[in-house]
């Protein structure tokens, strides 16, 4: 009887080893197409977003945070968003802290984080990083753990410029006879100027004599200054203005409401974001140029989970990838005439088909950029 019990015990132990692997632990699965091992199925993906600013801009950073919500809801991931504020001395230590943690993916954004990531990522080769709205310099080496997400904001801005030009020369209620539209940028940098170049090209595609009032706030958080500059544009004859300035750009929406003029939002669908608290303001936002940071981050997280995220490379996402476009909402349909909307749709198709090639400020020399600006003074 004793021998029988020993034999049964031995058989159970052997069966346990066969089912679970050596030592009774499940052998980790290889990540398909990727390096190392995949997160076990019962362990959720862990993703952290470091915001080098604050949420509440109803624009860029809020879109990134919405992407984190999408990653959580669609992939069952554990996510965290950390607001770092605008004190840039805190950004690098925060990135180091995140790198020391057990996050599977660490996400940062904007050109202001580029050098910091280029410095830190090589020190943590086993960590994976996304950076959006810019790219690291891969020629520096040791950045094969970084996936850069860039956007063809110039494509969306071309459509915005064409729409603004159509509106300012129309008989719409708040339009005036002046062929003058506005552009309010956060800072004079390549990404903001990429918006501007597309905007100007789209406007001149409709009317070669179109004029564009151009202002730069100097930051992305001073909404009072943004309002002041937008008011100056409206007072100078602009009847529709486009803000590309994050939280600072909200000042332009305030100015539009005060002067009863049209506006174009950016990054997020700004009309829908303000409609409950300020319907009068929402009724002036004709559309928004959507930079779908949220969609691009979800897309990247899905690729990571599948093992085919293009680390060590940069991708440029635009109209075709549905990461850039115009907000087509109740206000767009109510404010903008149907014939005008159809024309914008046709222009969008022409861009995607390659019939219209939109210029970009990325890599453009200063002389050429200034020539473009001077052409619409």
Could you please describe the fold and organization of this structure?
The protein is α/β, with parallel strands linked by helices and 377 residues long. It has two domains: 46-151, Response regulator (Rossmann fold), CATH 3.40.50; 154-291 and 337-374, Rossmann fold. The protein is built from 14 helices and twelve strands. It has a six-stranded parallel sheet, sandwiched between helices. Strands 7-6-8-9-10-12 form a six-stranded mixed sheet, sandwiched between helices. Strand 1 (46-51), helix 2 (60-75) and strand 2 (78-83) form a beta-alpha-beta unit. It is globular and about 60 Å long. The N and C termini lie far apart (101 Å).
* The CATH homology group name of the largest domain: Response regulator
Number of domains: 2
Report the C-alpha radius of gyration, rounded.
Answer: 25 Å
Query: What is the level 1 CATH name of the largest domain?
Result: Alpha Beta
> Beta-strand percentage?
15-25%
Biggest sheet, strands in spatial order?
A: 2-1-3-4-5-11
The CATH architecture term of the largest domain is 3-Layer(aba) Sandwich
